[in-house]
Amino acid sequence: MSETVLFAREFLRSPLRTASLIPSSARLVERLVAAVPERGEPVVVELGPGTGPATEAIQRKLAGRGRHIAVELNERLAAHLIQRFPRAEIVTGSAWELPRILADRGLRKADVVVSSLPWPAFKGPNGSALVPKIASVLPESGVYTQFTYTWTHWAPPSRHRIAQLRQAFEEVVTSRTVYRNLPPALVYSARRPRVPGGQSLSPAARAANRIAS
Description:
Layout: H1 3-13, H2 15-18, H3 26-32, E1 43-47, H4 53-62, E2 67-72, H5 75-84, E3 89-92, H6 98-104, E4 112-115, H7 124-128, H8 130-136, E5 143-149, H9 156-168, E6 169-174, E7 185-193, H10 203-212
Parallel strand pairs: 1-2, 1-4, 2-3, 4-5
Antiparallel strand pairs: 5-7, 6-7
């Protein structure tokens, strides 16, 4: 079964979970994974990998370095990813469980979180706390990237998500629209996570964190 057919089938099974009929384009994926370091041993977490277009790009950038943990809620897509990417750590579960998923693997922090989660994932009691939870597993130098479709960018759910990002991170940058994606999409890049309550870390706290690490 082709990637496109598999993705479309899962969309028809559950449109709110999959949110698109076809996987992300190479141009969109390039922007989504741009924050993955090309050196060192980074911990990269991927949320909602689907059939794996961003998974493939992350694996290519890591080239065997660090750790790549991909969290997919859909059991059928997770099984597909396990077969396709044996070097990645595929987890069948919810992004809401991210701190526990990392702890189960002996990790407290991730250097980069790459997310293809659809906007319904950020709704409801758990969803409203998802962005702060992602921020909580990132160090000061960590980066969180999230794509969204351009046609939803100004809809109330997307505006709410942008507000969540700006409350949880000091810097949120919106990319240009990627028209070579169907539908067109853009990427949010969030840096410098704030402490709970939306307050920035003081310079003294940052220095203490650097010494402790």
